[in-house]
Specification:
rod-shaped; three-stranded antiparallel β-sheet; alpha+beta; 13 strands; four-stranded antiparallel β-sheet; 9 helices; single chain; Tetrahydropterin Synthase, Chain A
Length: 346
């Protein structure tokens, strides 16, 4: 580069710059700058809180107040800052799956989330547990300032509690009848831990979505489930049959016992009546034996005659060809009884 070339170019550049700045007037930019400052002041002096949110206002980093839904004002720029917390919204965390498009036809993300869903049960079986946690931010100031990374903390606490609860139960219990009790226990334990951490989070519900064995053992698991269902069905059928037969047998037994008791009471009362009657007859016989004997003979004879089909009166003193007289007998009928007076010989 020849000597003196840079000074000439620099002088030419400075000359052009002076010519361009010759028409510049500083007074023209002052109103524009002032308008921008005022606009920025006004824009940063208000904020809007949605119906499901709570605003936490901080002045130089210190919390000074909270604001509910609506339009509010604050000091501009960085003097006061606002954090919006969805306190009235039910939030959700998913474990073992992810929802990409919610709605009537929910679509899920295709990915491997087995690192958070595979768990070891108390009987050393591995199961795949998918669940959701619904929660609400109860205290916005604790939620913002007591714990860092609130979402990750919630997920870590939930996964730890779920693994502990599932690890204390049998795999068949978690897969079948114990799902509701597992969810209730996880919810209670999570709320205790989150309250101890002062996170400001309230757990609304814990729901197990899908609990299945891992894919390699699903066929064997299905066979075991079918066998258990058959066993339960047979037990239910046997219980149903027992519920029908046992009450019937008990009713028949009670009926037989009642009939036996009634028969026994009847026989005892009848025997007592016969004994009382015999004692009364004996008393009369001892008082007037002849009359009583005659009366008993007549009563027995009348009772016997009522049952006889034919009556024949025979006189032992009669010497005629027909010593007997039939009364009320049909032709060709054999006589049923022959009566003679007592004390006479034939």
């Amino acid at each position: 580069m020849p000597n003196g070339q840079w000074p000439e170019e620099l002088e030419l550049t400075l000359r052009r710059t002076r010519l361009q700045l010759r028409g510049f007037r500083p007074r023209r930019i002052v109103p524009i700058f002032a308008a921008l400052v005022i606009l920025a002041f006004l824009w940063s002096s208000w904020f809007t809180v949605q119906p499901e949110e709570t605003a936490v206002v901080r002045r130089f980093g210190r919390v000074v107040r909270t604001a509910g839904p609506g339009l509010h004002f604050k000091f501009p720029f960085a003097i006061e800052t606002v954090n919006l917390v969805p306190t009235a919204r039910v939030l959700k965390e998913e474990f073992g799956f992810r929802t990409s498009i919610p709605g009537r036809r929910t679509q899920y993300e295709s990915g491997d989330f087995s690192n958070e869903s595979l768990m070891l049960t108390g009987d050393l079986n591995v199961i795949d547990v998918q669940w959701i946690v619904q929660y609400r931010i109860e205290d916005p100031m604790r939620y913002l300032f007591q714990v860092r990374e609130q979402g990750e903390t919630l997920r870590d606490v939930t996964e730890a509690v779920m693994r502990r609860v599932v690890g204390n139960r049998l795999g068949s219990d978690v897969l079948t009848v114990g799902r509701a009790s597992v969810a209730a226990e996880v919810k209670e334990e999570m709320q205790k831990i989150l309250s101890a951490y002062q996170t400001g989070i309230q757990i609304i519900t814990v729901e197990l979505q899908d609990v299945t064995p891992p894919d390699p053992v699903k066929p064997a698991f299905n066979e075991v489930n079918e066998a258990r269902q058959d066993r339960e069905r047979m037990i239910n059928q046997a219980q149903e049959q027992a519920n029908k037969v046992i009450p019937k047998a008990r009713g028949e037994a009670k009926q037989s016992i009642a009939e036996a008791e009634g028969y026994a009471t009847e026989r005892v009362n009848q025997a007592r009546g016969e004994a009382t009657r015999f004692l009364a007859v004996l008393e009369e016989y001892e008082r007037v034996p002849r009359v009583t004997r005659r009366r008993l003979y007549l009563e027995a004879t009348s009772e016997m005659l009522r049952k006889a089909k034919g009556i024949y009166v025979v006189d032992s003193d009669q010497r005629a060809l027909v010593p007997w007289l039939p009364l009320g007998s049909a032709p060709g009928e054999r006589p049923a009884k022959q009566v003679k007076e007592p004390g006479r010989s034939p």
